[in-house]
Amino acid sequence: MIWLCDSFIKEQELFSALRHEERVLKIILARFFPLIPKPLKFSYELNDPDIIGEADLEEMVIRINLSYLFSHGEIEGIDTLRHEVAHICSFFEIGDVWIKRRGKEVYWPHNKNWKKWCRFLGCRPYAKMEKNKQ
Ligand SMILES: [Zn+2]
What is the CATH number of domain 6-121? Predict the structure, then answer.
């Protein structure tokens, strides 16, 4: 008889939910942006405690901080995946967005177009608490 502890089962359930969400997001991305040169990949090996997730547009990799997801659960995890995919959708639709702030050009990742994609994908249209999240 195999004994499975609660945390192991919760981890498996979390991964199952994330894999499902990955598939859905890949289908949406392919439908709206069929000419994206590389397939989207997801990595859960982001270890910077200041970053929940990041979208690497060059490599087409979404990197996620797994310990954050373990501590915050499935709903937060799915919201994070959608947040990062919204960055990819926004970039492939209109490119990077820069605004002028106090006379300086500033990169604006959480711009209005990104928020539009957040609403479409079903995640909260704002960055969470961490300063470095993109
Ligand atoms: Zn972001």
Answer: 3.30.2010.10
The pTM of this model reads: 0.89
Ligand 1: centre distance to CA 106 (Å) = 15
Q: Which residues contact 75 (CB under 8 A, 6 or more apart)?
A: none
Q: For residue 75, how far is its CA from the centre of ligand 1 (angstroms)?
A: 17
Across the chain, mean pLDDT equals 92
Structural domain boundaries in the chain: 6-121
Write out 14-32 in H/E/C secondary structure. Answer: HHHHHHHHHHHHHHHHHHH
The pLDDT value given to residue 3:
64
Name which residue leads in pLDDT, 59 or 6.
59
Residues 6+ apart with CB under 8 A from 20: none
